[in-house]
Each structure stands twice: as C-alpha cells, then as structure tokens.
UniProtKB/TrEMBL annotation:
Keywords assigned: Isomerase
Species the sequence originates in: Ferrimonas sediminum
GO molecular function ontology, one term from the record: isomerase activity
Name this protein carries in UniProt: Chalcone isomerase-like
Amino acid sequence: MIRFSLIPLLLWVGFHPASALDRIGESTFSVLFWDIYTAQLFNQDGRYQGLNGPLRLSLTYHRQIDANDLLEATESQWQRMGYQDAASRQWLQQMGLCFPDVDTGHTLSFYLAEDSSARLDWNGQRRCDFDRSEGNRQFLAIWLSQDSADPDFTRQLTGEPGDQP
C-alpha cells in the first residue's frame, strides 16, 4: 500500500464501513458497443447530495486496462474540465503511483471522507491514502459534476431522473 499521509490514523476519521453506505445509483460506461466499466455510487442515506463525504464511487471493469491508460484518461478529463493548476498536477502524480492495471472483474473504489481526505481500494484491499485535497473532489467530479462528459451516465449514477419527452 502506498501512503501519502503524514498521519495515517487521521485518514480513518470520517470513513464509514462499506456496509454502512447505501447505493445511490448505478450506470455502465460504454464506448460504441464495448462496456468499459459499471459504476456504483454510495453514501449514508442513498440520496446524492453533492461531493460531500462520506461518498464511495466503485468502478467494476469489463475490460483489461493498463494503469497508464487510466491515468491518461483521468488527466484528459481534468483538462477538459479546466483542472490544470499545480495542485491538480501534483495530485495526478500521486494517483499515478496508485492506479493498478485492471482486468475484467476488478473493482477500484474511491472513498471521500467527511473531512475531505480519501483513499483508493483495489478489489477490496486498501491501496492508497490521500490527504485533504481539492483533487479528491475533482477526481469524483469526472463522474459526478454537471460538466461530466456523459450527462446521462451522471444522472443514472446520482439517481436523478432523466430528461422526459
């Protein structure tokens, strides 16, 4: 496990066990006719209330993807969303050390705590800890913000109703 925290014990403050979180929504991200991953979003009451912890985003992959490709996709989305400051670049460097290569059936879960610290789990095993940082919310914003690349995906994930005809 890689640690980016000076005081690892403090990172547990605000985290809730997975069993204590309720599912908000689920959506599958596809490119053309290939399913890439299925995302599930969880919090304490099962209703999305913004990028406030405790919040867990779990991505279960349907394809093999190299860690470098995951990082490049994250960086590409951040550039599209305007997250290009020095702090964002530093956060991406830290995440670059955390992302594993994923295969079909692997799950990456990103937990945002109430105190804005975060952690990344891989297949249920703790992989990395992140101190409080805006980068933690920016990472989740890829899937959850109004500026996401796929608004329908975001609506399903956050439990919002889609556009009605």
